[in-house]
Amino acid sequence: MPLLRIRNLSVDFATASGAFRAVDAVDQDMETGEILAIVGESGSGKSVSMLALMGLLPWTATVTADELSFDGHDLLNIAPRARRKIVGNDLAMIFQEPMSSLNPCFTVGWQIKEALRSHLGLNRKERHARAVELFEQVGIPDPEKRLSAFPHQLSGGMNQRVMIAMAIACKPKLLIADEPTTALDVTIQAQILDLLADLRRDTGMGLVLITHDMGVVAETAERVSVQYAGQKVEEQPVGALFATPHHPYTGALLDALPERATEKKLPTIPGVVPGQFDRPAGCLFSPRCKFANDKCRSTPPPPLGADMGYARCFYPLNANERIAS
Amino acid sequence: MLNYVLSRLLTFIPTFLGVTLISFAFIRVLPGDPIMVMAGERGMSDERYAELSAQLGYDRPMYAQFWEYLTGVLQGDLGNSFVTKRPVWDEFFSLFPATLELSLCAMIFAMALGLPAGVIAAVNRGKFFDRALMSTALVGYSMPIFWWALLLIIVFSGNLGWTPVSGRIDLLYYFPDPTGFMLIDSIASGQKGALVSALRHLLLPTIVLGTIPLAVIARQTRSAMLEVLGEDYIRTARAKGMSPGRINGIHALRNALIPVITVIGLSVGTLLAGAILTETIFSWPGIGKWMVDSIFRRDYPVVQGGLLLIAVMVMVVNLTVDMLYGIINPKIRKR
């Protein structure tokens, strides 16, 4: 049984000007101990699908799915009270902005011990010992002293370490990291990614890494899911994805990497992600795709098979002659 | 922290001087003349008028009178009342506990209802409870306080006979008042039923005086909560699997309290002003009623001294509020 199984997940937001589909028919599987990266530009729905899993979406969102299960629990039709026993315990999440994700009115120690009390029921002494242990585990120096610090007294990198310590406090089976390094310095980014990879290795938890940074993906992930405008357009193991991308969007993303540039001017993807009012009738990427024809513009392509990385494309790249014929 | 307090105390000096000037000028620009009021209906001869005027110092130029007043104030001497001949300072502090007791009860009443109401309204934003509560709060805020008081008296004292109409305690009870707070003194007296009587007298004035602060606190709590509930750290708390009660009541409310205690601090000024009407209606022997009576009597020292002391109270309360910011949200302490 996979740790995480998502089938046909869609999320719609009610806005003043009608419904907006942020996540569109996404399938996703994940095994225990795996590192999955979800990549895509801003607005591609990568965070929203994971927030739906956590049950953290605002009330304006409607979540529909054929299946949304984690560790044998059906998270789609779960009662709020039962969900709170899983979320923060077996299923944890860290966020993009460590500075604003911690409550400014309470010490970081208080905030970490709170989770230990409600999920594990530890007493005061045990909580303190566990909090010190966790701070050591995530590489916070002088943990005894740091526990009584307020978030504003710590740096961004330290706060992200606190967030990670808080997330792994109850030894989760799956940790979702939503752009954990975007708000941090480059040197700190590498430290945090190393920390997450080490923790995954030591604890055997699964790790979902949401990012728009292909460099982070190449360094950390095992499997990559590429999302575009709410749809999953391709999924492959990391090596294969970088070597033979099948969806033109993945290809264009990789071409835009500075490391891969062959010309003086970096290639870009023209245009922007379609919004609420300019959603194309056919393939969502067709307005920006250099290979698109009339068929692409009128008919939405269904996902291909595993050998083609589930690419949603009529004319996948690197397909040899098998499909084109 | 100590530096902060000292620097805040320094800003008191210009405010204090301004308040002395305004309170001094306020009573003098009112039409009327204390000596004529003293004379009553019989009138007074010109010689006697000049004699009294010289005796009280009113024949001297304004700046000289102000200087004399100011030097007196700085030495802790607010002058004596024309009517009772007692020092203003003594009169103020013999009456102030009554006002303070009423104001504290009104504030506790307003906070005890206003904070939860605001939180519940924010959590149920847009739903029936929210709309009903906020409309009620608007009505409470807009209601003329004397009309509301009379309405309550008619219903609860007149029709139902549950509460007394005026005063602080039944005439049956008599005991010394070392603290001036009727609730404490009635317990200390050990007389049976004294505390209940004091509470029954306190009930309606508390509701009347607390209504406007209640409405303000409820609305302010709601808007502050709405803002805080959208913050990232609330999402973090939910991601930790915390219960909604804990998230709203601890994580969010503590952050929302900053703007709320600001309006609570500012309400104290309103409360003392509101006390004038409330005390007059319920014959509550506090400084509000004392001030009104003194204005009618053109009792210059009492009005200017009383205004000054009330202003100082408000300043002290607001300083306390500023200190509370740093305790509630340590991030503010740094700035």
TrEMBL record, chain A:
Similarity section: Belongs to the ABC transporter superfamily.
Key words, A-Z: ATP-binding, Cell membrane, Membrane, Nucleotide-binding, Transport
PROSITE patterns linked: ABC_TRANSPORTER_2
Main location: membrane
Protein name: Dipeptide transport system ATP-binding protein
Gene Ontology MF terms in the entry: ATP binding; ATP hydrolysis activity
GO BP term, pick one: peptide transport
CDD domains: ABC_NikE_OppD_transporters (cd03257)
GO cellular component term, pick one: plasma membrane
Source species: Sulfitobacter brevis
Membrane topology according to the record: Peripheral membrane protein
UniProt cross-references to NCBIfam families, sorted A to Z: oligo_HPY
Domain ABC transporter: 4-254
Family matches, as Gene3D superfamilies: P-loop containing nucleotide triphosphate hydrolases (3.40.50.300)
Pfam families, alphabetized: ABC_tran (PF00005), oligo_HPY (PF08352)
Matching SMART domains: AAA (SM00382)
Localization, UniProt: Cell inner membrane
Tree of life domain: Bacteria
From TrEMBL, chain B:
GO cellular component terms, semicolon-separated: plasma membrane
Gene3D superfamilies xrefs: MetI-like
The entry's keywords: Cell membrane, Membrane, Transmembrane, Transmembrane helix, Transport
Transmembrane spans: 9-30, 100-123, 135-156, 198-218, 256-282, 302-328
Cellular compartments annotated: Cell membrane
Annotated CDD domains: TM_PBP2
Family statement drawn from the similarity comment of this UniProt entry: Belongs to the binding-protein-dependent transport system permease family.
Official protein name in the record: Dipeptide transport system permease protein
Species annotation: Sulfitobacter brevis
